[in-house]
Please model this.
Amino acid sequence: MTLRSRLVAGLVTIAILLVGPLVFAEHSVFRLKGDFSALRDRDLAASVLLGQLREGLDNLRQLELGLLFTRAPEARVAMEKQVSSVHKLADSLTHFELPLYAADILRSVNRISEVAQAEYRARQANDTTAADSLSSKIFVPALNRADSTVVRAERELLARTRTIVDQQSTKINNTATVSGVALVLALIVSAAIAYWLTSSISRPIWELRSGMRAVADGDLTYRVAIATDRADELGQLAGSFREMTQQLAELDKLKAEFVSVASHELKTPINVIIGYLQLLEEGVYGPLEQKQLDVHKTLVVQANTLLRLVRQLLDVSRFEAGGGRLEPRLVKIDDLLSELEAAFHVLALQREVRFSVHRCEGLPDDVYWDLDRINEVLGNLLSNAFKFTPHGGQVQLTVDAVDIGVRMRVADTGAGIPPDQLHRIFDKFYQADNQGAARAVGTGLGLAIAKQIVEAHGGTISCQSTEGVGTTFTIMLPTRVQRRSSLQRAVTGSAA
Model:
């Protein structure tokens, strides 16, 4: 699945999960709206109808008094109309699920209609006794029964309405609970999907960014932890990244080979130039004037600088190719340190820098190292320390014994190295931004060679530095080194 398809699927799923609870809530609201509409159209109308019935029965009670005390035909007509109206109202109760009450009221109304006609005839015959008897024994009891039936119907309607309202309230609460739970679950699932989408995309991107940073810092062996068989754009990017690092590694190898070959080929003409310069100095081709001698000195200095640079390039190329061989022999540490102390004593005086060598207790008397190579390493570190330490500063070489062998520390109170550049100081041709504080310009190869020599001895070299405070290089070396090349050492170490 491509990234676009994954994003679309994830977003559609999140939308469905979030819209689902809303659709359910809206559906429940429509159902509740229908139930309340039914309640309004049925029970509320029934309540109004019962109120009209009560009013109609009260009117019958008043009209019955007029029927007893007057013989006017209008009283009879009014009674008949009112009885007919109450009859229709009672008959309408059957449409509101109150058939039993409707039947009871209709029976009472029919009885009232019959008795009202009898009362009217008795009143027309001036038989007040019969009329009063019909009123008290039949009309009034029938009217009271109708009133009682209306009251009972109102009570039942009220109880039924209360029950329906309670049921609707329960439904509302259940709907709210279900909607809330569904919304929470939808948010949780949506968050999980969003996290999965984010992590499945951002993690490979972070890994690719780390890989690009590593390649930019010169680590061409970095391998991104992304499967190249992924069926999306990130898998294609991972494959392209690996192809790029492989091609860059090949180019770096070709560059190293070119530097090695070019440096080797440059040695011969440089040696020839230096040889002829020596012959000129010896006067083989005749004496030189003062101006010619000045030019001669400049040429000698530049030729020797060029020769030193070529030799450093060859050393780096040999160690990278595994051909930097060591010639270890018995070395007395005290003699080594004494020679270094004497060699840099004059430089310390010239630079007005305090220089000291500290030998800690427990040092072995003898070690088995390549003396020339270790001298080169320590000489390079001490030269750098003096180069970056101002007048009145301090350079110190401390040597002590550790579990794995010997530890040597070269510390200065110089300009220091920016922390974001420490990891690159051992790269070829790399020079930190503190070159403005240096007393001389370097080539950027000394620390790279020192690292190769130390690692060929089976040791480690590291650096700690604080800007404006100083720098400390630490070398850890075993006391005994086998006679082998750096390539042999690397193969043996990887096999172990």
About this structure: The CA atoms of residues 92 and 102 lie 8 Å apart.
